[in-house]
Design brief:
Blueprint: H1 2-46, H2 51-57, H3 63-86, H4 89-92, H5 94-111, H6 119-144, H7 152-176, H8 183-208
Amino acid sequence: MKAAHLLVLLCVGLLSVSPAHAHGDEEHGGAENAKLSSEVAGQISKGDIAPSAVQATGATPVSSGHDDAAGGHERAVEAGALVFLQKLHPATVHFPIALFLVAALTELFVMAQRGASLEPAVRVLIYGGAAGGVIAALFGWIHTGFWFGGDAVMQVHRWNGMLIAALGVVLVWLARSPRESRTLLRVGLYSVSALILAQGFLGGELTHGPDHLGFSWI
């Protein structure tokens, strides 16, 4: 009986040791494969080994998954930046609206001969309104993309915004040039002011829907 018991204990011991050795070999082999994959990836990046040779050896570069993840992250960041820029158009339109309208109001005091000293202020307001008009038009194209579609309201809003930006640049030239008469400047300034009021209405139609003020003329 003692010999049989000894034989059973010996078999149990062998069975318990064998899986441990097998598991250790697999881990060791996995470490070697990972090291080999890292070396192969470095050689591929240097051009020492062609990708076809990697397939023949069965090694897999470990950096491929990391590169895919990094590329996906970069694309997500780019998409997020574009969405952020598209949302800036409604914020940028307030500057040319305010500056051009205040310039027109200030010019009324100049016309009434009660504020001749306000002419430099009108000039500065025109500079700011023109810069804001160009920026608002630029962000308008970013907002919609390079797209020429849309209904009548969208079409008029788009090209009226471009007209305001162009006339703003003309007003800058008129304001900088010393002239005895301010007639051209005033005609251009009040024309831009009227176009801005119409542009604000069209923007409301696009944002809040048709007849947002109870009427629509397009």
